[in-house]
Description:
This protein is an all-beta fold and about 120 residues long. Helix content is about 0%, strand content about 60%. It has strands at about 5-10, 10-20, 25-30, 40, 45-60, 60-65, 70-75, 80-95, 105-110. β2 (about 10-20) and β3 form a beta hairpin.
Amino acid sequence: MTERNTEHRPWGxxxxxxxxxxxxxxxxxxSPGAELSLQYHRHRSESWTVVEGSGIVTLxxxxxxxxxxxxxxxxxxxxxxxxxxxxGITFIEVQCxxxxxxxxxxxxxxxxxxxADA
Length: 118
């Protein structure tokens, strides 16, 4: 993985591994004790496969334990979040849809104060 494809965030980092028309593949690394914002997307679905570490994945109103080899599908419009355990969590995310930019994130809660008007 090259550093130029990696973006750092308050919760950790992501690296774009591949992308093409209507898909993008990322490696997402969430630091120990950190979490993604509670969010949804208007234009894309996501599939997550945990490859390292553990944590909690929120899908709608359900919270599920996440550890290596677990898979989660997030349909368009589904509220979701990943939270890392004490060792962090890493997963591969496959996005599918007609808008795959960071602009398609609607944040509902965010401990890093990144909520803007939707």
